[in-house]
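Example 326.
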Amino acid sequence: MTAAITALGGFVPEDRLTNADLEKMVDTNDEWIRTRTGVEERRILRGAGKATSDLCVPVFQEICNKRGISPEEIDCLIVATVTPDMTFPATANIVCDKVGAINAWGFDMSAACSGFLYAITTGAMYIESGRYKKVIVIGADKMSAIVDYSDRTTCIIFGDGAGGVLLEPNYEGYGVLDSLLKSDGSGRTHLHMKAGGSLKPASQETVAAKEHFIYQEGQPVFKFAVKGMADVSAALMERNNLTSNDIAWLVPHQANKRIIDATASRMGLSADKVMVNIQRYGNTTAGTIPLCLWDWESQLKKGDNLVLSAFGGGFTWGATWVKWGH
Ligand code: UT7
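Predicted structure in complex with oxa(dethia)-CoA:
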């Protein structure tokens, strides 16, 4: 028995933050942002009281509506995020409360940009074990909550958004077929948030020092990401005897168009087999991969082999092979 994706949902807020807007906020320009990252605009969740759970709720509801089921039928919700509504309780608990998923248990998973891959792999195992029949996995991040909009090296990249899938048992060989997941905690020095955790609780000093924002050393992260994403995707193909001809789509984390191009080239895939929407949403961290699936859903055919691939904070990275089932 495998865990098939039986419904998809996605959500991005309406408010757009364009490169032209950023030109007025920091010392940057549209040409630099486009050529160095591929981003043209990002979506921002504005409004008091709006949080990551509010990105997840429409995703959860779209999934249930498309599948024709009620939230009460969901067994488990996993939310991959690094921008939870609160340190505790888990965003998954809050989402279940907001949508009326009264029979679901759930939890958040923290693996930054690889969060969706970690979570879909975990969710698939719950299905494969036979214990649960309907597991929703959502990748969601309100990155605008942790971006310093005076730091031109990070504010140009990130945006807000969420996407998710419903996993159900399948007996015809469709769904999540293999995952190769990696982590290396020594990479934390290059990409992290300095304060707000138990290491350095929030204080007037941490706020004044802007330590509640993303800290990223772009160049080393770029270097590790190019190698990590390409290596793990190639290794996943090799151990499953997949060649570039077998792959219908690469579904890459949308961190930087140059990282995506390098991964596709290593896998021997032409650009028409690569999902890219970074120009419209930027890097939504755990949201990027399911948002690609959501945008491309109408083009996916039963039996298509997809390779989902990511690299991000932790460091965490990985690749997942999905055979599309509907
Ligand atoms: O998803 C989580 C994982 N994160 C990633 O995968 C991100 C990986 N890193 C990257 O995508 C890239 O490193 C960045 C997009 C963050 C930066 O691009 P880069 O090509 O590595 O630029 P750089 O840091 O080497 O900077 C090149 C130049 C510098 O100027 P000098 O020293 O050459 O005069 C920067 O100060 O570009 C300058 N610069 C900018 N110029 C205009 C940096 N940011 C900007 C900007 N606008 N926004």
